[in-house]
Amino acid sequence: MTEKQPAAATAVEMASRQREISVSEFFLKNRHLLGFDTPAKALLTAVKEAVDNSLDACEEAGILPEIRVQVSDRYGRSRVIVEDNGPGIVESQIARIFGKLLYGSKFHKLRQSRGQQGMGISAAGMYGQLTVGKPLHIVSRVAGDELASELFVSVDTARNRPDIHKKRRLPWDRPHGTRVEIELEGHPQKGPHSVETYLRLTAIANPHVAIDYSGPGGEAVRFARSTDALPPRPREIRPHPHGIELGRLIQMLSTTECRTLLDFLVDEFSSVGRKTALAIIGQTGTQLSERSYPKHIAHAQAAALHRSIRRTRVLAPRTDCIVPIGEERLLEGLRKELKADFYTAATRPAAAYRGNPFQVEVAIAYGGIGNADAERHPPATDGPDDGAENGAAELMGAKDEPVRLLRFANRVPLLYQQASCAITKAATQTNWRSYGLRQPKGALPVAPMAVLVHLASVWVPYTSESKEAIEPYPEILREIRLGLQQCARELAHHLHRELRLRREHGRRAFIEKYLPHIGVALQEILSLGDEERDSMVKRLDDVLRASRAPQETGS
Asked: Do the strands 449-457 and 404-409 form a parallel or antiparallel pair, or are they unpaired?
């Protein structure tokens, strides 16, 4: 018997079913967009978001970061605790920061920061309440306050607002700082996607940070800082005119407080002085003048202004809004966490995409820790440093394995979606064979090596909200390739020197092997005594060493 089809809906019935969707409700149903698609990935993402917030807060307050990370696991339910010595959070802001998506202070600021959208830590709490039904537990104390504030906060997903379950004041042994505790459905794992690997990479890119990690298996690792110098604080800049689209320009014209178009161009944009502003206005013809009132500019006039901006040469954006790690600090971080035979680093000059300044840094660590010959398995002993050595080994390729690509954006490690990232594309497009390495077609080179690439920018063009890969803009690809080639040339020189020294050593060992036999033959020919023969062999050896010394010094 055929079932009766439901009656077709009328326009009135369809209209009655329309309703507004909360941003929290949207991401609750699409949590994979934020990096919470599997328990293993969700655990790492929660740790990452909490640590990133701690580092940003400490650096902005001028405090050397001391961070404690604790992860425990029981029957598929994980508990993540991240505690810092930052400035703390005033009580009135705690609930909004942890219980409201898209709430933060960094979205509208053009300067380098780890967070951009203001949804990471609140999304972690939302995932926790979805999977285990428990709210976030926050303790925070501001310097000078006698007591700390303790709150239990969840997200009201229907309205995207915080729901406070409990709030009180309590004593805390820290003079200032924040402690976040999240319970969630998680799965701790080992290897390149583990919490320990993420923290090790964070320590490499942030050598001023000290991190104490306690893992679910009882392991305890400390990542000590290698410098007491905080990185300079980036300055906020105004948008660059070449990165503004027409719709954004119209919006800025309608909301500006400037009374003239000339003041608008000079005050609202970066790298625009009075001379440049007059040149932009002059290219609009008679449609606009320097005294035009911005809020009264029509759509056609705004379009003409936008075209004029595109045609006018404007100075590159300021670069004090981004703070690269620096070659010296990169090498410090690599030497601290990776034992290798050769290190090199290069920081490219600042460039721009869509008016956004960015800077690329590249570093290479080659050889060491037995990667070329030994298998990378856990050692038989149970000493306190075994886990650290094994974790470092995960970051270096063996001689018959592809190199390890360590990707960073604004000092944050990127552990997922490697294939779709601009860094990976630039690395595979580089011709590593010309620098002495084996490279399968369309793949990373094969060598006992780690390649670190860091992109610093006021706005990193991530491929998704989960911030796991960088969009391959042509300008970014070009700068990464140039940085890779610069470091690869230094590596090629090192490999050439090593090869030449090995050849010289082999030749010398071969000659030294037969020197005594030559001495015996000369003794028989010249009828020399034993002492004279030994003296002759020594003179021959001295001549050999003297002839090879200039070549070895030159190499």
From this structure: parallel
